[in-house]
Amino acid sequence: MLSKRTLVVLISTGLMAGCAVGPDYQRPVVSLSDGFLDQTAVDDRPAHAQVEFANWWSGFGDPQLTHFVTLALEQNLDLAQATARITQARAGLGVANSALLPSGSISGQMGRGYQSVETPLGQMLNATPDFDRYGNSYEANLVASWELDVFGGLRRDHEAALAEYQASKAGVSATRLAVAAQAADIYITIRGLQTRIAVARQQVQTQEELLDTIELLYGQGLAAELQVHQASGALAQVRASVPVLETGLEVAMNALDVLLGSQPGTHRAELAKAEAIPAAPQIAVIGTPGDLLRRRPDLIVAERRLAATNARIGAAIAEYYPKFSLSGLIGSATSVSDGSLFSSGASQMSGVLGLRWRLFDFARIDAQIDLAKGQEAEQLAAYRLAVLRATEDVENALSALAKREEQAHLLEMGVNSLSRARQASFASYQQGVVSLIEVLQADENLLRASDAKAQAQTESARAAVAAFKALGGSSTHQSLASN
């Protein structure tokens, strides 16, 4: 049995030292390169504007893109769920904070009893002069208790709750970044499909004009029936490509509506007029892979969750040690109602120094510690993997941005050459120098090159969106990472 002096010494020593058992958290060191592989190529690329990470979507110079991204950040339901999780984490932090403080309660009760004279006790009392078979009782108490966090278990719980709260805040930033990137990506896809549809419809018009010309020549006996069928078949093939593209366009528009938290079709009228594919802006500062650790919110989430699991190891280890608590009661109790409830004679008070020690439960504590250590090891691996995948995202996005822009530039030159070749072949066909096959081949080559150019321009802009997302979107999360 511990003596009173020993208990006082233990409590005083723990409070003065402010010790907390378990490992103190150290942010893991991750080995990263000094730069990205395609960083130079992206830095040197010509672009119409430079844009910082904050509000990067405005750098595309497209007011409608900015409008839809802003709308998504206001109305997206995934973001609403992430924001609600902050409230839950804040509540958990409040519970952990309150555990470190004294708690108190006020209680009161009033009772009225009746004693039967048929019972042995009632018969005995009934023989007492002036026995009152009815009895009243009144009581009011103020009770306070405080668990003394001598070995830091509650403080470790608080550390874990704080880290989870910070992770939830970074999670909202990660969701905002993902929503903004998805909105921009879908919008660019819509503009790309509209451009491809316009290319296909222009080719339909060209093929229709060619068919009209051949039918006119056929009516004059200057063209064979085979040529009419060849031109008609080529026209049908081009027409058949339009419904497929239109289906993809409708799917993309519906996806954007759902992302905006609205019914499919809500914003279709706003997007009905085809606009140019937004040009990818220049990224002002790409930074290094090490910058991702401070800038990407999903990495901050992984790091804060790692910190939380580390703190829970200390909370589990603290169960090895005794827990001390102080509790006290101040109140008043009486069995009469003549106003003497709060008199000096009715007062009552008590003070208790409590001890709880899981002295014969160490096997279960060992298992809880092993569980906490296993969770920390899992989160450490998840954090390291998240860092690797983050650098992979950036490398892939920067490579795609540089290569797609190069592809679009080459295809633009090809489209110009094929357009002139088509004009020349048609003129030669009218003069009887070449056959209709050459004209149809020239049309097909031009259509393919124009469609490929539109796709390359679309993918280039989407790669820029992916690069901004992979790089972290903005640097507003650094304060979280430094906690």
UniProtKB/TrEMBL annotation:
GO cellular component: cell outer membrane
Keyword check for Lipoprotein: yes
Family: Belongs to the outer membrane factor (OMF) (TC 1.B.17) family.
Source taxonomy: Bacteria, Pseudomonadati, Pseudomonadota, Gammaproteobacteria, Pseudomonadales
UniProt-annotated location(s): Cell outer membrane
KW Membrane (keyword) present: yes
Predominant localisation class: membrane
Keyword annotations of the record: Cell outer membrane, Lipoprotein, Membrane, Palmitate, Signal, Transmembrane, Transmembrane beta strand
Pfam families assigned to the protein according to its UniProt record, in alphabetical order: OEP
Protein name as catalogued: Efflux transporter, outer membrane factor (OMF) lipoprotein, NodT family
Topology term for the membrane: Lipid-anchor
One Gene Ontology MF term: efflux transmembrane transporter activity
NCBIfam families associated with the record: outer_NodT
InterPro entries for the chain: MdtP/NodT-like (IPR010131), OMP_efflux (IPR003423)
Signal peptide: 1-17
